[in-house]
Amino acid sequence: KAWTIGILVQPNQQWTLGVDYWDYKVESSIGAIGESVIFGDPTKYAANFVRCGMLTPEEASNLAVCKDASPNTLAYIVNTTVNLGDYKTSGLDLQAAWQSAVGDWGQFSVNYRGTYVMTYEYQLEQGGQFFDNNGNYFNGAPVARYRQVMSFGWQKAAWSTVLINRYTSSYMDQNKADQGNVVAGNNVWDLSVTWAGVKGLAITGGITNLFDRDPPFSNQDDGFQVGYDFRYANPIGRAFLLRATYSY
Questions:
Q1: Which of 38, 65, 157, 238 has the most CB within a 10 Å radius?
Q2: What percent of the chain clears pLDDT 90, i.e. is strictly above it?
Q3: pLDDT above 90: residue 116
Q4: H or E segment at 40?
Q5: Is the pLDDT of residue 190 over 90?
Q6: How far apart are CA 89 and CA 145, in angstroms?
Q7: Is the C-alpha dihedral spanning 221, 222, 226, 228 positive or negative?
Q8: Residues 78, 175, 229, 24: what is their CA dihedral angle, to the nearest 10 degrees?
Q9: pTM of the full predicted structure?
Q10: pLDDT recorded at residue 209
Q11: Using CA atoms, how far apart are residues 188 and 207, in angstroms rounded to an integer?
Q12: Strand duo 130-132 + 146-156: pairing
């Protein structure tokens, strides 16, 4: 079940302002409980733990961990998709745009898009407790409370340039008891310059991660890449790009 309501205002040819509120609810969802949840409560999820002694000799022989191991050694956990509870999320989509009139110095523009998550809650079982991922690492991943993309543009004749800012807000890390338990916001700038002096041809040169920022540190261990969260930030530092396109 989903509904949205919003307003878009264009007071003149230069300005556009808008905001949308959205609200989603998914009932009787299907998904995996999550490795960290299962290991976090081994008593409740005891049925998800498979010990070497529970396997047939043939099954145990195919698992290195069970060779010459005690019957109580953990062989694996069962984390397949199951019937879960409900999901609830709501938030705001924000937008703003401005462009100047064409003048002797060319035309300037600013564009902004942002999303603010107000709630993100879900149940791991029907009628169970609601867990909150909003701004908080839980069950394998965080949900960033705020994200934005902002661009500053300039164009004159065949030349144009764009400076882009991509920002994602901070969140509580996976292991909250450790020092540095807040993953810092990720703030990256990109720059590109384009020449389109021939009809149909456009040549673009640019720099991504202009200030060579490292991804913010995270102590998460759910992914194979550690030291940062690869779903939240890109480990590639400053990089250069060159692109040519021709349309006919």
A1: 38
A2: 61
A3: yes
A4: helix 35-40
A5: yes
A6: 11
A7: negative
A8: 70
A9: 0.80
A10: 96
A11: 11
A12: unpaired
